[in-house]
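One example copied in:
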Amino acid sequence: MRTPPPQVLLLGSIASVQFGSAFASKLFAQAGPGGVVMLRLLLSAAMLLAVSRPSLRGRSRADLRAAVAFGLVLGAMNWSFYEALDRLPLGVAVTIEFLGPLVVAVAGSRRLLDLAWVALAGAGVALLAVRGDHRHISTLGVTLALVAGTCWAAYILLSKRVGASFASLDGLAIALGVGTLLVVPAGVIEGGGALVRPGVLAGGLAVALLSSLIPYSLEIMALRRLSAAAFGLLMSLEPAVAALAGVIVLSQPLTGILLAAVIMVVTASIGTTVAGRNAVARAGDAARPSA
């Protein structure tokens, strides 16, 4: 069978991870964010390790260090995001978290236009903090979402490196195992005995499939055939899809403030991506010899 286009793979990843996050938050009351994220990573790692059976033989130290770093970032990103999600609506959490990949998109740029896009996104997040419904906005939650965004930025940088160095999904399997070890203490403390309840285990398995195994696998496959510009353009939809998942799954209100913030962040991300792609195209044209 032919592999679907990378754009389709990435869109599937975005929808899967955001609706998976919405379902995950329903388990927080029973196992806590730490317990849910531990089940998510543990079950994802177990399934992927059983399927891929990665071998460490013949791997360079640089490749192994990249896989371990990727795993630590995965664990920290998911843990901090779930803790933020326990304190913020889904759309708000993802909108704030999205600052991480946006900063990566403009890192190193000296164009004033890119700084303007970052300012627009920052203004959208500030709008949530200043004018949002403070019954649903937690300072700690905002801080945790920013931590998750920082980890997301590192994830983008490491995922392409790991995807290029390891065949199939071996690197991801190793990384999920490392990430699981990182969150075990928080998972045991917050989840306790609830972690072995059949209902919680079943929910954890569903979250593992929707939020880890399916989206990460799709992303790594898509990144092998997708340019950085196209990846950034499609990832711009994350906050909008998150807000939609919050409305459909969690019955969270889509307020005017949240809608405005999402539009500002999505516009900034699209603008950054399109401007960057045009700059690369112009540089390519200038480099071509004249006839």
